[in-house]
Known about the structure:
Layout: H1 18-27, H2 32-41, E1 58-59, E2 65-66, E3 69-70, E4 76-77, E5 96-101, E6 104-107, E7 134-143, E8 149-150, E9 155-159, E10 181-185, E11 191-197, E12 208-214, E13 228-233, H3 236-242, H4 249-255, E14 276-280, E15 284-293
Parallel strand pairs: 7-15
Antiparallel strand pairs: 1-2, 3-4, 5-6, 7-8, 7-11, 9-10, 9-12, 12-13, 14-15
Amino acid sequence: MNAPRNCLSVHDDHHQGLGADLTRMLAQPATRRQSLRWLFAGAGSAVLPLAGCGGGSADDSFGLSSSTTTTGSGSTTGSAVCSVIPEETGGPYPADGTNRNTSGVANALVLSGIVRSDIRASVAGASGVAAGVPLTIRLKIENVAQGCAAAAGATVYLWHCTREGGYSMYSNGIVGENYLRGVQEADSEGYVTFTTIFPGCYEGRMPHVHFEVYPTLAKSTSAANRIKTSQFAFPLAITNEAYTSSGYASSVSNLARISFATDNVFSDGTALQMASVTGTASQGYNATLTVGVSM
């Protein structure tokens, strides 16, 4: 059988050694993707030319492979090397100064005390506290434009709904509250951490968390400075377990009528937006996700 076009056969003059292999390789009209594959295969490898001849891994735009795993729920997790997380809608409840609630312009970014790690309680004179299964969210912000280096100093504004599915600053009964919203500056390794509760599921959406990324803390007071708006989700098995807890009854019925395939944000895939989650409903959960942005 003939070798694939632009690929070297393992049987072609292999006895002539690596020097001859390299000569033939360089004589081929290699694409940028093939060249990168050969480069990353490592010098001195007898199979170096074969790196450009296909394989079972997915490739990103740089020709580097990514690894993904599939959970029991059928959702894909993992992320490609140096990939920017998809841009998504901020939804109708961002409270970043771009829309209004019943009291006027809704802007949590300028509230005193909004820069914090624990977002379960309201700030700036409001006193409500959101109940629910404890959840710690840890995001690593990476700068794709700098080879996925840690984006130290980048700032994240994060928000999500209550266990009942409402949004502070907008929903009936909690317009005066601002819990489950917070701003955090990334540390030297690009990490931000939020202590919160597992979000509920409201009609028509899979459970999710919204966030915006800003280049610096100083620029995080105006939505005009945001460089990324996106969302992330949770594995279905974890979500089902969390919803066995008190207070999530409406989430159980809402979740039964929606899926990742029919969700208007995640229906095109969750490979870069599925958090890795550990823990239990009784002890609380820890969710982690790497967020690629271009700065």
